[in-house]
Amino acid sequence: MDVERCVGSGMCVLTAGEVFDQRPGDGKVVVLTPEPPADVWDCVREAVDRCPVAAIAVSTDRRPPHRGRENPGRRGEESFTSDEVCGKPTLPATPNI
């Protein structure tokens, strides 16, 4: 994690809030769970992929094998949509009025 690079967008918190949080004041990333359980790794991978400035990285020697749907991300790793893996609700593209 590169706190200096972090711009406080909050995508990591929205995607994997059980692992990441933001500091009060500047909104920089804070790791709540340095060794997350296997059942949230897909969300952690998604958070890494969604970081707009690539401030988060995971160690490949400590993460469990990929179990979700494969979809190449910008760094050549698997990525997922948070609604597929992390159980987040999906908002409609246009509001129903």
From TrEMBL:
Residues 60-97 are annotated as: Disordered. Residues 60-78 have a biased composition (Basic and acidic residues). Keywords: 3Fe-4S, Electron transport, Iron, Iron-sulfur, Metal-binding, Transport. InterPro entries: 3Fe4S_ferredoxin, Fe-S_cluster_ET. Its cofactor is [3Fe-4S] cluster. One of its GO terms (molecular function) is electron transfer activity. It comes from the Bacteria. Pfam families: Fer4_13. PANTHER family: FERREDOXIN (PTHR36923). Ferredoxins are iron-sulfur proteins that transfer electrons in a wide variety of metabolic reactions. This is Ferredoxin. It comes from Micromonospora echinospora (Micromonospora purpurea).
